[in-house]
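> example.struct
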């Protein structure tokens, strides 16, 4: 058996599940055909795929999966999950009506295509942008936020950040995904430039959803919420124990001085009394 009606998104893939009695039809050939009866047009079988259409089978669970990639409007219509039964005229078939629809893009996600740490050696860092949902094709652009009007800098889903191209200390970039159903911007990519020297150009990239940033001073990728560490070359100081130690020494000296004076006074009084 299979779902009677399924809906796929234009340009994307869909997987249709076809179930059968695993103890009875494990060794039978399964197929996917366009049509509702035995005279349908077979377009894929378990023993041969057909380009963007393929079948995988799990005999233990009694299921075979039909995957159709890059769905087009003309793919809509009636199909059948079929199981060949040798020796008789009628195969076991389950009818499926495939509908094609359009879908608005989702908020595009961002990810690093290269390790951000290479920014500390003057290399470029690439950030990609992609919507997980939405009918294809999807058009992507990258823009930089500006005080007066945002400036488009790329019409692809990849942003290449070159340290030498930065003109100020802080930059903000975002990606926009759009199709016929709508437009969605990504979150902001924050860039802070440490220095722009030709041979030692470095900068920090922060993307909040990824929850990680790169700080050249620490030479590692860390979470923004991580407790700050002491930078190399910094000295940790502590005034408490040292001040207590100095006070104790001073009091000890004063105590011995007073004791010595007391002894001297006592001896002097004794000698004066004996003489008189």
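> example.seq
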């Amino acid at each position: 058996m299979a779902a009677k009606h399924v809906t796929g998104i234009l340009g994307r893939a869909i997987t249709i599940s076809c179930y059968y009695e695993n103890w009875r039809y494990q060794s039978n050939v399964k197929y996917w055909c366009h049509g509702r009866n035995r005279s349908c047009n077979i377009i894929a079988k378990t023993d041969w795929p057909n380009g963007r259409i393929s079948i995988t089978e799990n005999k233990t669970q009694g299921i075979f999966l039909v995957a159709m990639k890059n769905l087009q409007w003309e793919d809509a219509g009636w199909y059948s999950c079929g199981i060949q039964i040798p020796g008789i005229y009628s195969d076991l078939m389950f009818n499926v009506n495939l509908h094609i629809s359009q879908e608005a893009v989702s908020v595009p996600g961002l990810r690093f295509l290269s390790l951000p740490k290479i920014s500390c050696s003057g290399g470029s860092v690439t950030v990609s942008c992609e919507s997980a949902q939405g009918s294809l094709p999807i058009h992507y652009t990258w823009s930089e936020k500006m005080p007066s009007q945002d400036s488009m800098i790329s019409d692809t889903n990849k942003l290449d950040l070159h340290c030498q191209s930065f003109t100020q200390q802080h930059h903000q970039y975002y990606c926009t995904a759009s199709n016929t159903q709508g437009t969605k911007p990504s979150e902001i990519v924050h860039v802070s430039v440490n220095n722009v020297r030709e041979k030692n150009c470095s900068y920090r990239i922060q993307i909040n959803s990824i929850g990680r940033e790169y700080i050249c001073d620490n030479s590692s990728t860390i979470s923004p919420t991580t407790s700050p560490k002491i930078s190399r070359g910094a000295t940790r100081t502590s005034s408490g124990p040292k001040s207590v130690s100095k006070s104790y020494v001073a009091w000890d000296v004063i105590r011995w001085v007073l004791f010595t004076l007391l002894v001297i006074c006592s001896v002097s009084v004794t000698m004066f009394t004996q003489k008189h």
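> remarks
Residues 218-249 have pLDDT under 50 and may be disordered.
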